[in-house]
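input
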Amino acid sequence: MDDERSVSILLTPEGKALHSQALEVSGEIIGALGMTISEFDHLKTELRTLTDRVTADGNTAHS
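output
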């Protein structure tokens, strides 16, 4: 049985202001790591791929 329910979530103006602040913090962290934004984006992509592979149904760690 497929469940087609969905929920839409939007940021309030206050949430949007916090989002902008969070982006600034992210940039500072990336800089502190000595990475460019491009390098950090590549790392995130690789980590997501790794996570997907590890959590995939039927996947074993004995390869």
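quick obs: Residues 51 and 57 are 12 Å apart (CA to CA).
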